[in-house]
Amino acid sequence: MYSYKQNKYLRYYQQLISSRRLLVRSKSDNVKYEKHHILPKSLGGNNTKLNLILLTGREHFIAHLLLVRIVQDEDVYKMINAIRRFKKKCSSAKEYALLRSTMVTYSTGKYNASYGKIWIHNAETLEILYVQRADFKTMDKEKFFKGLPYQRGGHRDTTWMNNGAEETCANSKTIEEYLSNGWNIGRLNPMGTAEMQYVSSFRHTAEKDKEHSQKLSGRIAIKNLQTGEVKRVKPDQLQQYLDKGYTTDCIHTTSLSKKFLIDNIIYNSAGEAANQLNLEKAAITYRAKSKLEKWKNWQYLIP
């Protein structure tokens, strides 16, 4: 457990959290709640229900103001960075609550770039389309199917664990096994400033979603037979990739099927590397993508 400063602000923070827990809030309530990590993820917190609570915009702002006053040493900088994200929008908790409520209103429904749209693909050509749900209902169901012709990777349903010497990501099915083997919830080394900046660059926005959909729509999924790499290319580029050894037979492939070079050893997939190194697949892909110095020997093998 993180060691907070013992002061009046810690009591205020604990009172805020405990009093809101008693309210038994739900996303289904007619209130624009925000999820708050009681122990911030940058300090080793996780996404379990025990570490999450629903707060109003004003309460969320106040919670982060209190965190700045109760964390230790260099962690103060991390909490100030979190506050800076609020301060870019407003100068007070009341102003933030109003702005946040307005922002939520104008990022849902018809104002959202993804409103009413779904990803589909052509089972014969693997062409990817981003269409209105109403339009999909009129399309040939024997040819067009919901979703992408490949599986996306990611850190969903994962929690950071450590055993004092190493860390990894565990999902809800394996977390009990890790705990029974002496592992603890949380990161071995809480996220530093450089890592926070790297992770924040992947933050989802409506603009990114719109740009992503425009980039992928109409493209065809192909796979490199040697490395397992999955790409999406324009139809007029398809032949040149087929000539390079790619195939359109990738319905059952995933983003985890690429080859990895880890400490000068080649692994054919994230699954193979995870089994050999006793880590979660999410940890393998995370380290391969990371630009941190400590993971410099973890790489994707891209042709």
Protein model, in words:
Helices cover 35% and strands 18% of the residues. It contains eleven helices and 14 strands. The chain has helices at 8-21, 57-70, 75-87, 93-105, 133-137, 175-180, 193-200, 206-216, 238-242, 270-277, 281-289, and strands at residues 34-37, 52-55, 117-122, 128-132, 144-146, 158-162, 167-171, 184-185, 220-224, 230-233, 246-247, 260-262, 265-267, 298-300. Strand 9 and strand 10 form a beta hairpin. Helix 1 runs antiparallel to helix 2 (57-70) and helix 10 packs across helix 11 (281-289). The longest helix is centred in the N-terminal third of the chain and has 14 residues, at 8-21. The two termini are 44 Å apart. Residues 252-256 have low confidence and may be disordered.
Helix content bin: 25-40%
Mean pLDDT: 77
How many whole angstroms does the radius of gyration measure? 22 Å
Strand fraction: 15-25%
Given helix and strand content, the structural type is alpha+beta
Give me the strand/helix succession: HEEHHHEEHEEEHEHHEEHEEEHHE
